[in-house]
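User: Teach me something about this protein's shape.
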Amino acid sequence: MLTPHGWIAVSVTVAVFLALQLRRRAPMDLLFLGGLVVVTASGVLTPQEAVAGFASTPVLTIGSLLVVAAGLRATGVLDWIGHRCLGSITGERSALGVLTVTLVSTSAFLLNTALVAMAMPVVLDWCRKRNVSPSRLLIPVSYLAILGGVCTLIGTSTTLVANATLNDEYGSRVVELARVQLADPADLDGHAAFVESVAPMRLFEIGCVGLPCALVGAAVLLLCSRYLLPNRTDLIEKLGEQRREYLVEMLVQPDCRLIGQSVEQAGMRNLPGLFLIEIDRNGDVITPVGPTDVFHQGDRLIFTGVVSTIIDLEKIPGLVPAADMTYEFHPTKRQQRHLTEVVLSRTSPLIGTTVRAANFRHHYNAAVVAVHRNGARLTNKIGNIELEPGDTLLLQTREAFIARYRNSRDFYLVSAVEGAAARRHDRAWVAGALAAALVGWLVISSLFNDKVVAVPDLADHWRAIWTSLSAPSVIAIGVAVLMVVTRCLRVSEARGAIDLQLLFTIVGALGLGKALSSSGAAESMARGMVSLVGDTHPLVLLIVIYVMTMIFTEMITNNAVAAMLLPLAIAVAWESGHNPRPFIMAVTLAASLSFITPIGYQTNLMVMGPGGYRPRDYLRAGLPIALVVGLTAIVLIPQIWPF
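Assistant: First, the predicted structure itself:
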């Protein structure tokens, strides 16, 4: 029977879900935090339990990983990764195929939360450049990371929590076995076999079923995603405005990665709103430019494009605007400069002069990047363009330029260009090394944590130090701080990278999950479902436990469900006289594979805002995958771990 507190917890959770479904524009973080306030005010949670989520491992880890991802983005590492993985990919289906192979294989050895935090900016960039809605790819990013996470013990925090619970259960069973040995030696064999069946999992043990589940789930996603995922075209407009086209001239420097690549290989034919008009090679003009034409050092590339694509061109190391040679391209000095749009007024002293003769550096401490003129076909030599009233110029300026010239009679309009921060390419190797260290240490700590803690002769203070240094939240926070200390990221940029809406939503979801657990609602419903089965065939019992775990994972949070239901599954196996191993694996897999709701797994929440998703999108896309993966697990588990 549910207690009054249990009814309150269930009612509030259902109300939040309904509000998310019915009120499409309702802020997620406000709804979840509002639900948390209600269960706290009702006495279901104590104030300390309610705010504990702000210091929880998922919140601290995700917040820190967002800063790490921002550091990789600011230094151009994510641009490089995106180019290597998706640079030549033009279609949504091909991109999904590449993401499937990359994310599933990587997620097996890297916590999927970290992987999604780093993959999201890459996918969003690709979507903007290819004019694809991110709602077509971000749910797959989360799902693929989840699927890859069950291939090994260290792929997801849920399997680690489950293994820690097993470790505690194994220890208590060993103590019980010693008592049985003294009290009833005749019953020793049965107890010993049962104790061995609840031993902690080995690194690749769960992968015996997890890998087939990942392959089947990824296949369903690849085959059915075009029918299951929404296509929110309004998000394309948010990713990049399709505004006025500029004429821009870029110079290929000696260290540019484009040298030796064809136009097609470099991806210069696929950027939306961008057209390569001609290549000027030491006075020889190549026009029209074909897909097989190869870039050389010293080439001058003439493009027409919108602001967002010009920013993309600037992010390529060794490719710099050539219209005004006072342009600053040194990575460190470029951090002090920004892109600004200005519209020339009739009273501007620049009217009638060419871009080359205007000497913007002398007059405004600025450099011309590109030129736009409404209703007129500009020549392809920007330096020779004679400026007219109403011309829009894209300038590289100092930070104080806007404040100084906002009211100047020289310009009708002065505005900053968003998202045009220069890349710190000189710090890319530092950011890459820090990210590699983060990944390596997460893998090492996951592999050896149980072994180090179990060393009997290890001093307590060394044990405490290892426990602290092996915590994912501590590792992630440390690397995030180093990103700022090593000047890969400014302090202001680090603060701006922390998505408060996402973190508040996770805090609220954790609080509601805690309310369902601490009120006894979750356990009461679990025991009720098991009792309905009674003493039937163990396969029926396995199905009930898997489905029950899957349902609770979607309602609460995966880690809480794994910790709560594993002891219950072991107790059920003991009472029914069956091998507990298949039930342990069923709980671990079902708790790790959450596809149907956004709150079941933190990566689902992470992509909800950027993808513009609603709860029913997860139900529609995730239900077929959950059913196929669940069926695969239920069929294979008894084959590998017999009852």
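Now, about its shape. Residues 157-183 form the longest helix (27 residues). The domain at 244-305+318-416 is CATH 3.30.70.1450 (Alpha-Beta Plaits). If you'd like, I can walk through any region in more detail.
User: That's plenty for now, thanks!
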